[in-house]
Amino acid sequence: MFGTAEELNIGSIPIESIPIEQHHMMPAAIVGYSIRTGEQVILHDAAKEGMFTHNPYVKNNGIKSILCLPIMHQNKKICMLYLENKLSPNVFTSERLDVLKLLAAQSVISIANAKLFTAIQELKNSLEDQVKERTRSLERSMLETSAALAEVSVYEERSRIAQEIHDIVGHTLTSTVIQIEAGKRLMSKDAGEATQRLKEAQDLVRHGLNEIRSSVHMLKEDRYSDLSAMLNQLMRDTERNTGVIISSEMEELIELPTTHKKTIYHALQEDLTNGIRHGGSAEFRFSLHSVDSKVCFRLDDFGKGSETIKMGFGLRAMKDRVEQLGGTLAIDSRQEQGCLLRIDLPYPSRKIED
Fold it and tell me: What is the value of pTM for the model shown?
């Protein structure tokens, strides 16, 4: 607050930013002295006493009483209070000074609170802006994540269908080729038996097509509810269609999820096909049992074997399935000693607890 009785102004004059000598509303020397020393200046008759009697501002304006009071808060100078009177000397008595100091103390607290409130409002506005920006960023991330998950889901589903079709087609075609070869050999010797073999080959192809349609249309019924029956049926069909011998030993397992059942079924299907097609094996030994918290799958063939195993699409897909379920797949093979497929699948946690 500054001015005269006729014209009063309310505002602040930054001490640091505006040189006090440039301000025409107060004596620069007196205010500057109080600022530098931190002392209050009280002049009861400024033109006749004290160190500022010759100050041009005091002489030219006929100043009588002057008060210059530093306003402090928490040992920090907040502002300066300058008052003057041109009419009477001895205006700023000790009683009035006490009142002014009390008012100044209340004023400085109000100023500090106002600054604090302004800072809180600015912080609030800043936080609101940050929250809005963060929300927009999260929304963009969620949209991008949703799109990525949708793409991954589509890819996984395509891979799943491709794996099932591969398993079905590979096994079916292997059995079909063997039946056709047998039919060709019997054509000149036993036409009836040859016709029967070709009919079985035809039935195998039809069966394979039906299986493919089931996979493509993603039928939801649980075909694998009775795993033992499904495995036995697969082994009997393979024996009948290819002439191989399969001995098996399976124990009753704790109820498994469909994903585990499908993995076991297609692993047996894939490895029987590989053993016949690539290993030339005429005999297999299969076992399925549980050890601790794992399902142990073992399939021995007595074919050619190999020092190195090169994984094709079927074996890679099988390995991926097993690892997705937290299991392990390994193949032991030696030249002329056949192959051993080992798969260990952990039971799901809830099954272990049951």
Answer: 0.44
